[in-house]
């Protein structure tokens, strides 16, 4: 049974931050009992963005912390890979074995044979990013983290020149909140807090643009349900109407944009009739939306990640962002466009990540192409040798990565050593050679930044962990000692020391941040609304982006060049058909959208979340179901050249005809044949700077 080490005292409230991969990064108040166990978790009412509201899954965090299946001791594989036979091993022996395997891999194939692999299972900077310090110190293969943000961040910076925007709390001061390509009722609940406040206090309209009737769309005053990958066509039609009907702010564009005349000429044929044929929306729907935002100066465009997870995702983001510039919405409090504030935080991370030890000659491997890397694809390996040893922290690639069959095939290689540091026996852990038990966020110190708002937040250790689990930082430090780099810069520091060394800009240390709980980093109005100019040297917004030479937050190294069909990207905002369009053999489009009570592959282990989600299902429109002889609850089969899976049908008019929706990254084992939805997703990168197109898959469908 998982029981924390007793820490007797008085009941109290501890303050922390949600560690999970969500832009809300909620400030938390955590009930702590006299025996040192956590109880209910609540959103902090004192934090102006969290505003006392958090999602139900985090509110029940004790279910996860004290789950009977939590990993509690190091394990070593016995028998064949994936066979499920494990034996106990001491921490010392486990770490010795990992270090020995890394040394053997390096001796046989060079340092690049070792690939430390991680992502956002925790967003705490110390516990998440310290693995890079070991990577750089040992000259292990680089890690290009492409799986989540790249298309969105790239598209935004192509227009604005930086990744920031109006204070997201300004949604409460808006007269129209456009929630584009994100489902915040399920995934970013605080967005709804501020949008609904605007509706109640100002009579603001809420517009939701998405591809199916998700919980957010049900809250909308205007709901626009379009085909996946067609958002740029809608944006172009809205801008066409703005120029046509006098809503475009020509004076604003003349001062702040690069080529408004060229954009207007380009959009002359991108009218609502043109967009209706591409998006599946009605002409009247498009006209009404364009008129609403055109007449409403305080229109706040909250742009999400979901609509960018297509092969034209960067183009879609840039096009949607351009609407705010055509309308001049940036000029008004409660107006403009916001995606992420990731560029406003002045945290000094170079020592934490070992950035000064990085060598540009070391190859960079694409996170999303792990299946291709591990199965020996020469292009994915950058023309160099194999990966034969891995340490995996904070991610579950056997479940969440594209091309799942290739990923599993790679993990089953006999010559590949894998150590996984985890909370539960995930799909990836089951394929490992050594599994290490990890602390959870209330059991260690860390620091967080809220990309979806403007706060740096402290997450101090609140309770004692079980005696047999260890932090990510502990594992990195112990491996560094065994591998001979423990004396290099950045090693030998505690979490608190790392946090203090990241904060010189704020003249603050760990203890002071503990007293303050968070730092509000929101820039002043003129900076946030680009009154002094956008983030390019000339201060001009780019309607004509330089798709292959514009700096971006996660641009691949120059040695890798631009990714994907970048030569097909348009000169101005436009719909570009580089998505997986249906064909005779694959007449349906499949999107793998987030589930409300899961977060990627996290919370899939808790009873409450699994009961609320039910089972893996695919949403099918009644017309498509009838045409294929499918009834609600039937077992159906989906497939494409990457593979095929079986799951249950949910017949609903919430899906559009021709579009299939599979919510949630269920564990592979929850599916009928032990294979998950990412069997069907591709790892070919999104142009121009990479990314995974999880919502862009053509498939066939039939009753099983």
UniProtKB/TrEMBL annotation:
Stretches assigned to the 4Fe-4S Mo/W bis-MGD-type domain: 11-69
CDD domains: MopB_3, MopB_CT_3
SMART domains: Molybdop_Fe4S4
Coiled-coil annotated residue ranges, if any: none
Swiss-Prot/TrEMBL keywords: Iron, Iron-sulfur, Metal-binding, Molybdenum, Oxidoreductase
Pfam families tied to this protein: Molybdop_Fe4S4, Molybdopterin, Molydop_binding
Family: Belongs to the prokaryotic molybdopterin-containing oxidoreductase family.
Annotated protein name in UniProt: Oxidoreductase
Organism: Shinella yambaruensis
Lineage: Bacteria, Pseudomonadati, Pseudomonadota, Alphaproteobacteria, Hyphomicrobiales
């Amino acid at each position: 049974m998982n029981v924390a080490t007793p820490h007797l005292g008085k009941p109290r409230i501890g303050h922390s931050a949600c560690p999970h991969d969500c832009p809300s990064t909620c400030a938390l108040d955590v009930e702590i009992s006299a025996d040192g166990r956590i109880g209910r978790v609540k959103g902090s009412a004192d934090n102006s963005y969290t505003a006392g509201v958090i999602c139900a899954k985090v509110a029940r965090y004790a279910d996860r912390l004290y789950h009977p299946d939590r990993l509690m001791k190091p394990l070593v594989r016995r028998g064949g890979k994936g066979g499920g036979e494990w034996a106990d091993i001491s921490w010392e022996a486990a770490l010795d074995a990992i270090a020995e395997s890394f040394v053997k891999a390096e001796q046989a194939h060079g340092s690049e044979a070792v690939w430390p692999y991680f992502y956002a299972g925790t967003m705490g900077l110390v516990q998440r990013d310290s693995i890079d310090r070991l990577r750089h110190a040992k000259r292990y293969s680089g890690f290009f983290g492409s799986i989540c943000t790249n298309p969105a961040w790239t598209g935004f910076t192509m227009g604005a020149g930086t990744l920031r925007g109006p204070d997201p709390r300004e949604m409460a001061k808006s007269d129209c909140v456009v929630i584009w390509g994100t489902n915040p009722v399920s995934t970013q609940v605080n967005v709804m807090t501020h949008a609904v406040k605007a509706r109640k206090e100002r009579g603001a309209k809420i517009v939701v643009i998405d591809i199916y009737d998700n919980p957010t769309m049900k809250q909308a005053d205007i709901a626009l349900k379009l085909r996946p990958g067609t958002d740029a066509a809608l944006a172009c039609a809205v801008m066409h109407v703005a120029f046509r009907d006098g809503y475009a702010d020509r004076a604003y564009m003349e001062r702040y944009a690069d080529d408004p005349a060229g954009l207007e000429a380009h959009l002359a044929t991108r009218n609502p009739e043109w967009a209706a044929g591409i998006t599946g929306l009605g002409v009247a729907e498009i006209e009404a939306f364009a008129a609403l935002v055109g007449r409403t100066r305080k229109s706040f465009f909250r742009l999400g990640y979901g609509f960018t997870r297509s092969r034209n995702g960067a183009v879609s983001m840039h096009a949607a962002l351009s609407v705010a510039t055509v309308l001049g919405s940036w000029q008004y409090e409660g107006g403009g466009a916001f995606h992420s504030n990731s560029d406003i935080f002045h945290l000094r991370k170079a020592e934490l990540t070992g950035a000064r030890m990085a060598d540009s000659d070391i190859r960079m491997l694409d996170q999303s192409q792990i299946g291709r890397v591990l199965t020996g694809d020469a292009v994915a390996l950058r023309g160099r040798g194999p990966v034969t040893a891995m340490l995996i922290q904070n991610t579950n690639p056997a479940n969440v990565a594209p091309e799942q069959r290739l990923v599993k095939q790679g993990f089953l290689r006999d010559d590949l050593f894998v150590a996984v540091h985890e909370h539960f026996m995930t799909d990836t852990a089951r394929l490992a050679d050594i599994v290490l038990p990890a602390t959870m966020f209330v059991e260690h110190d860390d620091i967080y930044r809220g990309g979806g708002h403007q706060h740096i937040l402290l997450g101090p250790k609140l309770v004692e962990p079980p005696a047999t689990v260890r932090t990510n930082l502990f594992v990195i430090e112990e491996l560094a000692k065994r591998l001979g780099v423990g004396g290099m810069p950045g090693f030998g520091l505690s979490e608190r020391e790392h946090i203090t060394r990241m904060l010189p800009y704020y003249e603050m240390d760990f203890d002071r941040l503990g007293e303050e709980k968070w730092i509000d980093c929101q820039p002043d109005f003129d900076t946030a609304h680009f009154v002094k100019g956008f983030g390019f040297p000339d201060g001009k917004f780019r309607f004509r982006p330089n798709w292959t030479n514009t700096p971006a937050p996660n641009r691949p190294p120059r040695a890798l060049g631009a990714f994907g069909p970048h030569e097909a990207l348009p000169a101005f905002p436009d719909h570009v058909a580089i998505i997986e369009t249906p064909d005779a053999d694959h007449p349906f489009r499949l999107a793998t959208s987030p589930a409300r009570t899961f977060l990627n592959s996290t919370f899939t282990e808790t009873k409450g979340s699994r009961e609320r989600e039910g089972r893996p299902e695919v949403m099918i429109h009644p017309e498509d179901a009838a045409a294929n002889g499918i009834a609600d609850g039937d077992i159906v089969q989906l497939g494409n050249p990457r593979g095929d899976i079986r799951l249950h049908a949910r017949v609903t008019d919430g899906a559009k005809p021709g579009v299939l929706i599979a919510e949630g990254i269920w564990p592979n084992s929850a599916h009928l044949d032990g294979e998950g939805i990412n069997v069907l997703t591709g790892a070919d990168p999104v142009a121009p700077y990479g990314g995974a197109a999880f919502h862009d898959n053509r498939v066939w469908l039939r009753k099983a």
